[in-house]
């Protein structure tokens, strides 16, 4: 080997940063190319109104795997896991609602009063599901197996999770296999009585997916989130960005900000160089793209492998999320728990309402009662809003990218109004303290964050786009069909909210094969 | 209590549906003394023909056959006993804009038809069919053998699983991708990857929803597309057929075969309950009070009716009861049978009747189908439902007077749980029937004028009259979580039950519903093999 081999990473989001650190750790000289002027990707801190900030559109860090933090040595850069997941308030119009710790065994606060039988049900459910954890851990933390080239090694590898399964015993096994293709609605109505708890959990099965609670596959996503989530880190997504960035710099990674990639230049089915918007060309025989899959293929210049290109075109990424940001002159006070401060709230009503809202989305219609995922970063961090004020980020989950008639200003205002009135019904002081607002339709998110289809996960979650099929059978091994050009973004396994996991696994994969 | 002690049976089969009859025939063929008890005045269950209106014979419930296993037809000499099928010649779909599409068994003709909507789709349609046929060949062994039990440590089971795994490995990469897609996608998403024309995709997608409470966009509906290519009637392109004399013809042939092997069949002999004591079943009590004993009892009715209705949950382990209550039925379809004065004429394709010799799908667009589903989710029958229509009298002269016709309309969605309760169905029955006629009239303007008689079956009627719990036509939804080793309950997917000497043999067991005969035959084989009989 001559001087340190180079590598390029596209995108300074969590996956890009993770990939860069890993490559640098292995001795590559790494440059990260980022279109914006700061790292973080969808989690980059944005000032949407003077003095008010939000960590992009990433609300939590529950998806950060311990393995990622450990292998990248993030503890040395100030990263600290919380003792338990931050509380999420699920308000109810006439009542005290629920306070849940997402993915934790802890009994949701308020459940015992609302539905006494559910206390027992909750404990049973957590106990019954616990064994799945180890299987999921094995699946999430490594590259999915290659199904295509036959051979004993692959077969054994495939069987390994299966063997684990068998050790679980027939009962647990039957329950798990039964739950996987189910819809959240059925899974939950088999288990719990409380409609609010069911609605909250159902929302965890449809987030980031083009599914309603009655769609098969929403059960699997619900289980994935309930069982594979961690506790999250102190300081949230922006603290994670900071630690990753610091670790990358310490590892010698070089950063080029405000550097927009214009083309990926291919030759003889190999990556040759990356051309930037200002015409600068950067040569490298290893490029990890943490952009969307479609975007990555769109940038290729030269002979693009046909099978992979077609697979990329077929990846489904129909965004259904809009973002609303609110600057408030006072902390947000929720009805039912006026005296408490929450960093997170989820506004859902019943599973039927979630299903109806999805009907709208499916038919490309605006929804008058979308369900809301609310984060108030200023509740725990002083640098997100002026003293005594609040910055609120709302992810609105029933906003179809392909809205009939398009996202006109009128439609956006209507969406803002729908969100405000929904929030208002659950809070004491929303309108009176509203200083400013910003709304980003899915089409805006597509531009601001460079998202395929405006989808925050770059590729829908769902049974057919997970694991060996994430985002497609032909792309699931991080390869593009172009030697040296590797995919490492959130569209890749395990992707989604598993911050940094795809980048890390993709880098490992690239290193093991190059 | 009367007691018919005169005879002693090796097995009593409760329910003379086609699966009960198949099971009886196999057991009788193996020399066992078998009695079939059927509640209605005739056998067949959901595969039945009845002359409801003088001169007109309806296939009251099921209307086409495809999956009846060829080895069963051979083993039971069904052809000798009168089983005969007439292949469907085409699939016809009219559209509201006056256009229409007919897919024929002739590939060139089909290509020409499709090319009016999309030349790309026309080109690829053949490849799609060939791919699906290859995949179907891979899936077939699954419906011809007992469900593999992945949690078991029994080496034979593991071997079988391994074989399935190996089969999977042997699939070329392109097929593997399709296979995975089929198992996880919605019918629409799967078809989207192949075709662009809504007019083609909509009628194709329908096979994914028949008998389920799912929409064409619901994940998990794609795999049913395979069914269309698994049929065994006269070659790949003609995988569906009419049974001569209606689908009751199938049941009658099986009944005749069973009797020839020595089985006894009693109709109008409804079973009131099973005789269960100390965890053992020793016979049944009829509605009349008559008690009949046997070494084993085999249930040919669905799991809920079997265990909650005839056994009683007090005899069953709690965990089993819990799992049984989770097994989902929620019927979603109904049926309208019409006697017609003459052949109906579709406005979009008048004249020659060739296009009416197959099945007719009222499925004008994917959005139409999805909206039909959306309405049903909230307890209403679809205002504009999906219809699968056949006119078997065009090819079978035995079921209608000359020049007259019977028209069978399978209707979806008709949710069992109607807003306000399932008991409201009787008062909604005629309105439901009207909706179906209104829908058809948009394509057949003078339909009302030629209707001589109409029979409307709601999910409620299917439950009351045919014993189908919640009107589910397959004895429980055929969703992925209710198939194979999970049908009907994990750990009890091999026809055995927690009650000694009580077995199951109908559609609520692997491989599930449809006129397939496989559950009945596999159950009989399992019993004979285990030495239970
Ligand atoms: C409307 C409709 C349309 C369908 N269309 C098709 C189609 O086109 N093609 C296809 O392949 N499949 C179709 N199916 C499905 C198919 O008909 C069924 O899955 C299949 O016939 C079920 O057979 P089985 O023997 O398992 O049960 P069943 O046919 O349900 O038999 C059960 C029998 O038990 C009897 N019984 C009930 N209670 C008692 C009791 N207490 N004592 C004694 N006897 C009792 C019943 O009367 C019945 O005869 C359709 C079903 C319906 C309802």
User: Rg of chain A, please?
Assistant: 22 Å
Count of helices of chain A?
A: 18
Low-confidence stretches of chain A: 149-156
CATH fold call of the largest domain in chain A: FAD/NAD(P)-binding domain
Biggest sheet of chain A, strands in spatial order? 6-5-14-15-16-13-17
End-to-end CA span of chain B = 28 Å
CATH architecture of the largest domain in chain A: 3-Layer(bba) Sandwich
Explain what this protein looks like in three dimensions.
The complex is a heterodimer of chains A (514) and B (533). By secondary structure, chain A is α/β, with parallel strands linked by helices. Chain A has helices at residues 14-25, 66-71, 111-114, 116-129, 132-140, 152-167, 170-179, 184-189, 195-206, 218-228, 236-250, 293-299, 306-314, 351-362, 409-424, 430-433, 442-448, 501-513, and strands spanning 6-10, 29-33, 45-49, 52-55, 88-90, 98-100, 254-256, 261-267, 270-276, 281-283, 287-289, 300-301, 322-328, 344-347, 372-375, 390-396, 434-440, 485-487. Chain A has three domains: 3-48 and 61-77 and 234-315 and 458-513, 3-Layer(bba) Sandwich (FAD/NAD(P)-binding domain); 106-228, no CATH class; 321-448. Chain B folds into three domains: 2-47 and 67-85 and 245-327 and 476-530, FAD/NAD(P)-binding domain; 103-235, no CATH class; 330-469, Polyamine Oxidase, Chain A, domain 2 (Alpha-Beta Complex), CATH 3.90.660. In chain B, strand 11 (280-286) and strand 12 (291-299) form a beta hairpin. The A-B interface holds A 147-148, 150, 155, 158-159, 162, 165-166, 168-171, 173-175, 177-182, 186, 190, 211, 214-217, 314, 316, 352, 355-356, 359, 362-363, 462-464, 468-469, 472-474 and B 149-153, 165, 169-170, 173, 176-177, 180-181, 184-185, 189, 193, 214, 217-221, 326, 328, 367, 370-371, 374, 377-378, 479-481, 485-486, 490-491. The complex binds flavin-adenine dinucleotide (FAD). The site of flavin-adenine dinucleotide (FAD) has 39 residues of chain B, from helix 1 and helix 15.
């Amino acid at each position: 080997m001559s001087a340190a081999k180079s590598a390029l990473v596209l995108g300074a989001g969590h996956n890009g940063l993770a990939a860069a650190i890993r490559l640098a750790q292995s001795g590559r000289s790494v440059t990260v190319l980022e279109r914006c002027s700061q790292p973080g990707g969808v989690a980059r801190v944005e000032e949407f109104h003077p003095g008010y900030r939000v960590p992009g559109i990433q609300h939590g860090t529950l998806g950060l795997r311990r393995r990622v933090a450990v292998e990248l040595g993030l503890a040395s850069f100030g990263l600290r896991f919380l003792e338990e997941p931050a509380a999420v308030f699920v308000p109810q119009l006439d009542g005290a609602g629920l306070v849940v710790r997402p993915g934790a065994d802890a009994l949701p606060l308020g459940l015992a009063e609302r539905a006494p039988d559910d206390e027992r049900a909750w404990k049973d459910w957590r106990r019954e599901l616990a064994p799945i954890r180890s299987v999921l851990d094995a699946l999430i933390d490594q590259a999915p197996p290659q199904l295509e080239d036959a051979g004993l090694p692959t077969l054994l590898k495939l069987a390994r999770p299966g063997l684990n399964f068998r050790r679980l015993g027939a009962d647990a096994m039957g329950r798990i296999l039964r739950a996987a293709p189910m819809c959240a609605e059925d899974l939950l109505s088999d288990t719990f009585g409380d409609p609010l708890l069911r609605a909250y959990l159902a929302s965890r099965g449809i987030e980031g997916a083009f599914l309603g609670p009655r769609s098969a596959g929403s059960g699997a996503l619900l289980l994935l989130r309930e069982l594979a989530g961690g506790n999250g880190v102190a300081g949230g997504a922006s603290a994670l960005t900071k630690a990753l960035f610091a670790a990358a710099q310490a590892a010698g990674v070089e950063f080029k900000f405000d550097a927009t990639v214009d083309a990926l230049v291919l030759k003889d089915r190999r990556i040759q160089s990356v051309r930037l918007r200002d015409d600068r060309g950067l040569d490298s025989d290893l490029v990890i793209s943490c952009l969307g899959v479609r975007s990555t293929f769109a940038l290729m210049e030269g002979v693009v492998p046909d099978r992979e290109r077609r697979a990329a075109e077929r990846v489904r990424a129909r965004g259904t999320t809009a973002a609303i940001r609110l600057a408030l002159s006072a902390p947000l006070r929720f009805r039912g728990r006026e005296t408490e401060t929450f960093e997170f709230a989820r506004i859902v009503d019943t599973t039927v309402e979630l299903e109806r809202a999805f009907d709208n989305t499916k038919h490309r219609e605006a929804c008058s009662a979308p369900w809301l995922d609310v984060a108030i970063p200023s509740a725990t961090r002083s640098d997100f809003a002026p003293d005594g004020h609040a910055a609120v980020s709302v992810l609105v989950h029933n906003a179809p990218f392909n809205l009939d008639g398009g996202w006109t200003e009128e439609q956006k205002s209507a969406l803002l109004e729908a969100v405000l009135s929904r929030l208002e019904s659950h809070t004491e002081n929303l309108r009176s303290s509203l200083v400013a607002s910003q709304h980003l339709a899915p089409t805006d998110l597509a531009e601001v964050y460079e998202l395929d289809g405006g989808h925050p996960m770059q590729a829908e979650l769902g049974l057919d786009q997970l694991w060996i099929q994430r985002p497609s059978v032909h792309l699931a091994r991080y390869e593009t069909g172009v030697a040296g050009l590797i995919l490492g973004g959130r569209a890749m396994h395990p992707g989604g909210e598993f911050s940094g996991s795809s980048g890390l696994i993709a880098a490992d994969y690239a290193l093991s094969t190059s | 209590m009367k007691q018919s002690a005169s005879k002693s049976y090796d097995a009593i089969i409760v329910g003379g549906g086609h699966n009960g009859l198949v099971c009886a025939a196999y057991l009788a063929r193996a020399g066992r003394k078998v009695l079939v008890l059927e509640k209605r005045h005739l056998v067949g269950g959901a595969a039945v023909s009845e002359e409801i209106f003088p001169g007109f014979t309806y296939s009251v419930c099921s209307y086409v056959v495809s999956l009846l296993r060829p080895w069963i037809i051979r083993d039971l000499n069904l052809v000798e006993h009168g089983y005969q099928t007439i292949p469907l010649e085409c699939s016809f779909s009219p559209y509201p804009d006056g256009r229409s599409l007919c897919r024929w068994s002739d590939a060139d003709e089909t290509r020409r038809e499709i090319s009016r909507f999309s030349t790309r789709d026309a080109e690829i349609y053949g490849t799609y069919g060939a791919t699906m046929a290859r995949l179907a060949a891979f899936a077939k062994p699954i419906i011809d053998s007992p469900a593999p039990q992945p949690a078991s440590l029994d080496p034979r089971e593991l071997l079988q699983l391994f074989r399935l795994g190996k089969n999977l490995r042997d699939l070329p990469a392109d097929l593997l991708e399709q296979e995975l897609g089929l198992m996880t996608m919605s019918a629409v998403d799967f078809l989207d990857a192949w075709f662009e024309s809504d007019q083609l995709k909509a009628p194709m997608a329908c096979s994914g929803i028949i008998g389920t409470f799912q929409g064409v966009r619901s994940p998990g509906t794609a795999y049913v597309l395979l069914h269309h290519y698994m049929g065994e009637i006269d070659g790949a392109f003609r995988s569906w057929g009419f049974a001569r004399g209606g689908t009751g013809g199938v049941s009658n042939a099986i009944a005749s075969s069973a009797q020839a092997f020595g089985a006894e069949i009693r109709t109008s002999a409804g079973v009131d309950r099973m005789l269960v004591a100390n965890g053992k079943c020793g016979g049944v009590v009829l509605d009349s009070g008559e008690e009949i004993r046997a070494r084993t009892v085999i249930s040919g009715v669905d799991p809920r009716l079997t265990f909650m209705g005839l056994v009683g949950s007090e005899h069953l382990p709690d965990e089993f009861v819990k799992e049984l209550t989770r097994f989902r039925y929620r019927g979603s379809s109904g049926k309208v049978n019409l006697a017609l004065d003459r052949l109906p004429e579709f406005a979009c394709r008048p004249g020659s009747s060739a296009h009416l010799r197959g099945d007719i799908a009222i499925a004008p667009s994917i959005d139409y189908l999805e909206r039909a589903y959306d309405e049903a989710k909230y307890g209403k029958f679809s205002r504009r439902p999906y219809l699968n229509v056949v006119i078997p009298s065009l090819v079978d002269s035995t079921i209608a007077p000359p020049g007259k016709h019977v028209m069978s309309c399978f209707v979806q969605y008709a949710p069992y749980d109607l807003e306000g309760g399932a008991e409201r169905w009787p008062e909604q029955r005629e309105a439901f029937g009207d909706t179906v006629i209104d829908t058809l009239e948009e394509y057949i303007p003078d339909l009302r004028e030629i209707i001589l008689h109409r029979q409307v079956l709601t999910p409620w009627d299917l439950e009351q009259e045919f014993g189908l719990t919640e009107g589910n036509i397959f004895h429980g939804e055929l969703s992925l979580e209710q198939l194979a080793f999970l049908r009907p309950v994990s750990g009890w997917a091999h026809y055995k039950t927690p009650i000694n000497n009580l077995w199951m043999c109908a559609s609520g067991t692997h491989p599930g519903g449809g006129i397939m005969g496989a559950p009945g035959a596999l159950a009989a084989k399992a019993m004979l093999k285990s030495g239970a009989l």
